[in-house]
UniProtKB/TrEMBL annotation:
It is found in: Secreted, Cell wall. Belongs to the pectinacetylesterase family. This is Pectin acetylesterase. One of its GO terms (molecular function) is pectin acetylesterase activity. Pfam families: PAE.
Length: 400
């Protein structure tokens, strides 16, 4: 009996391993942009920026998909100093190879519209969603706040390697990278030839300005400090910074309507990162009443669900400030999730989340190629049985 159980376990692990290998495909090696160092375009610790590139082929040889890595932000010298010694602040801490999955997958069955494009994952090592630019290096901590320079140096490197001949191009990103894909959308378009078909995708990047559960303005204060620390104001939309304080111009709801390039917003209405870190951050919940709920939405009390339903309504109000545009796409599901384009099971698998009987990968592909517009907002939790609701192990983990 014991041997049979062990055999079944090993068989299950083998099948799981094969499935992961099949869906993720080959690992993609890292490329360091060494030439960026001379331009001062460096990570927090002064190391060169980096990206991973799986080259396009066949019909996709002149199509480029740029995926900006996420991973939160740092808002002051102390938090940036901690970040400096991780892969989110130093390219020497980054792994040399990463698997490409979801929107980056190289297999047609798992990524039917973009599998043979040039697919690039730009590593995130500045802590400002690629917006910072402070000329002086912090003398005590030796910190470099140069996210905007990193962005431009990586784009220039890719343009020199063939992206200047792009026929199709997408700027995408998840979380802090999803915010960056909004902030840099029009400037990305401006880098490419006039005839290029260019669109942007923001996955879990539509962070909203709302009060936390204690009634405070935690995220607004955080973004104010972030923008001041990184010198980001000059790299935010002038049409926004000319009429409101720069920290507010880090919120998509105040700038997204002014983005002229077609933009697709993918977001959970109950974004698990926003609920954990904007609605109910630890500082606003000193007694830990929200800890169990933040780990698993099934643990939430009815009173907490009501607060989350109110958060959803605030999210939708902020989202609708985008205004109406036939060129925009929208996939707003009612899942407790965060980042749904990079995980294969959420992007395009047999049991992926559905809206209007459509998977995210299909909705995005139809929108990009103008086969079918897609602007759908899900009904309220718990109405969608196709959701993959996130369950967390670590109640204090800040990043997805």
């Amino acid at each position: 009996m014991l041997n049979t159980t062990r055999s079944c376990l090993w068989l299950w692990l083998l099948v799981l391993g094969l499935l992961l290998f099949t869906t993720n495909g080959a690992y993609v090696p890292i490329t360091y942009v060494q030439s960026a160092v001379a331009k001062g375009a460096v990570c927090l610790d002064g190391t060169p920026p980096a990206y991973h590139w799986d080259k396009g082929y066949g019909t996709g040889i002149n199509s480029w998909l740029i995926q900006l890595e996420g991973g939160g932000w740092c808002n002051n010298v102390s938090s940036c100093l901690v970040r400096k010694n991780t892969h989110l602040g130093s390219s020497k801490r980054m792994v040399k190879q990463i698997p490409f999955s979801g929107i980056l997958n190289k297999k047609r069955i798992f990524n039917p519209d973009f599998y043979n494009w040039n697919r690039i994952k730009v590593r995130y090592c500045d802590g400002s969603s690629f917006t910072g630019d402070v000329a002086a290096v912090n003398p005590v901590a030796n910190l470099h706040f140069r996210g905007a320079r990193v962005w431009l140096a990586v784009m220039e490197d890719l343009l020199s390697k063939g992206m200047r001949n792009a026929e199709n191009a997408i700027l995408s990103g998840c979380s802090a990278g999803g915010l960056a894909s909004i902030l840099h959308c029009d400037s990305f378009r401006a880098l490419l030839p006039m005839g290029t078909k260019v669109k942007c995708i923001s996955d879990a990047g539509y962070f909203i300005n709302t009060r936390d559960v204690s009634g405070g303005h935690y995220i607004q204060t955080f973004f104010d400090q972030l923008v001041a620390t990184h010198g980001s104001a000059k790299n935010l939309l002038p049409s926004c910074t000319s009429r409101m304080k720069p920290g507010l111009c880090f919120f998509p709801q105040y700038i997204a309507q002014q983005i002229r390039t077609p933009l697709f917003i993918i977001n959970a209405a109950y974004d698990s990162w926003q609920i954990r870190n904007i609605l109910a951050p630890g500082i606003a919940d000193p007694h830990g009443h929200w800890e169990s709920c933040k780990l698993d939405i099934k643990n939430c009390l009815p009173s907490q669900i009501k607060v989350m339903q109110d958060f959803r309504l605030q999210f939708l109000v902020a989202l609708l400030r985008l205004g109406k545009s036939a060129s925009r796409g929208m996939f707003i599901d009612s899942c407790f999730a965060h980042c749904q384009t990079e995980m294969q099971e959420l992007w395009f698998m047999q049991d992926s989340p559905l809206l209007n009987k459509t998977k995210i990968g299909k909705a995005v592909g139809d929108w990009f190629y103008d086969r079918n517009p897609f602007q759908k907002i899900d009904c309220a939790y718990p109405c969608n049985p196709t959701c993959h609701n996130r369950v967390y192990d670590d109640p204090h983990a800040p990043h997805s």
